[in-house]
Amino acid sequence: MDDSRSIGDIQTTTAGDFGELVKVRKFVMHIEETLHEFGPPADPPQLKGYIAAVAANPYAGRYVDNLMPLMEALKPMGRTMAQRLIDALGGADTIVAYGKSAIVGENGELEHAALWHEPGGYGMRELIKPSKAIVPSTKKVAGPGRPVDVPLAHVNAAYVRSHFDCIECSIPDAPRANEIVWIQSMATGPRIYDRAGGLKDSDVKGEDGLK
Amino acid sequence: MKAKIRKTQVIVETTYTDLGRKVKVPTRKACALAVIVNPNANKYAQKLSVLEDIGAEMGEMLGKMCVDALGIKPKEAESYGKAAIVGENGEWEHAAAILHPKLGAPLRNEVQKGAALVPSVKKLGGQGARIDVPLGHKDAAYVRSHFDGMEVGLADAPRANEIVVCVAVTDSGRPFPRVGGLTTEDMVGKDGLR
User: Fold this and answer.
1) Among A19, A208, A186, A136, which Cα is nearest to B194's?
2) Could you read off the pLDDT of B60-72 as tens digits, one per residue?
3) Could you tell me which residues come within 8 angstroms of residue A11 by beta carbon, excluding any fewer than 6 positions away?
4) Does B74 touch chain A (CB under 8 A)?
5) Domains of chain B, with CATH numbers?
6) What's the CATH number of domain A3-195, 3.30.70.270, 3.30.1330.110, 3.30.930.20, 3.20.20.60?
7) Which of A103, A164, A178, A200 to mutate to test the interface with B (most CBs of B within 10 A)?
C-alpha cells in the first residue's frame, strides 16, 4: 500500500479536516432543476441535489471490530455537508425530502457504510424541522466512478407518496480503494408530475414520522 | 395478466466471508426483475391505472420468485425493497405508478406480515442501466442491521418502450452488523418502525 494514501499521512485543508479519522479529499455538489418531462411545464420546477464527501477510510484493509469511533467522528462532517446542501437549495424551509447513501472503496467493508446512519441522517434532521420521518438509504462497496442511487422521501411523513424519489450519484475518481463516499440528498418539491395517489403532503398529521 | 413480460431474471447473492472473516450464517439476498412493455410510453397520459394494476401483478410475481429462489418460507423473509427503471420513452412518474399504489400489498402477502414501508428507488435509464434496490427490515424500519442495498440490472433492458421492475427479499441482514441501533431481538414489529 502506498503510504501517502494511508490516513495518517493525508494532508487536507481545514475545510476537509474533521479530526484524525475523517480527512476529506473532495466535496461534490450536484443540483438538478427539472422544468418539464414532456407534459405540462413544472409548476413549480423541482430542485433536487446531493452533496458527497470523498474521505479516507481509516479502517481500510483490515477487519476492525469497533467501528463506533468513526461514527462519532463523522457527525461534524454530516452537519457541515447538510448545511452546504441546504444553502445551495435555498434554505432549510425549502427542503421537503431527504435521503442518504454511502459507497465504500474496495479495501473496505459493507458495514463501514452503515456508520452513516446517525451522522448522515441526524446531520440533516438537526437542521430541517420538522423532520420526523426516517431518512431512506442505500449502500454498497464499489470502485471509482460507480454510481449509487440515493433515495428521497418526505422529511416528516414517510408515506407521502408524491415525495418518493431518487437521485443518482457518481464521481469519476471516487471511491479509491481506501476511501468512502458519504452522500446526502435533498429535494425542494415532489416529483413534478405526481399523480400516483396516496397520502398527500397536505394531509400529513406529522406525529409518528409515517403519516 | 396486464403486464406484457419480455423476460425475467432472479439473482441470489450469498456472502460467505469478507476481509478474511467468515460469516457465521452466510447472508443471502435475492432480487427478481421483470422487463415489461411500458403501456404509457411516448405519450403523456393523465391516468396511469394500467401501470398501477401491473404493479400489483409484479408485487406478487416478483415477491414469490425471490422467496422461491431463497428456498424459504414466507415468514423467514427478513428485509425487502423495490425499484423501477423506466426506458427513455417513458416518464419518471411511470415508475411511481408501478411501485407505490398497489405493489406493496401483494408483496407483503408473499413475505408474510411486512409492517414496515417497502423502501424504494426509481430512475430513467437506457439499456444496461443499473439500479440500487434499497433494503430495510420488513417489520420494523429502524432495525439498523438490515439497512442494505442490492445493485441489479440487465444488459439489454430497458429498451426505450420498456420498464424494468425489481423486487428484492433477503433472509438475513448485513454480514457483520456492529453499528448499534435497534436490533431484531429488541424490535416489536407492530408500528412498522420499531
Assistant:
1) A208
2) 999 999 999 999 9
3) none
4) no
5) 5-170 (3.30.1330.110)
6) 3.30.1330.110
7) A164
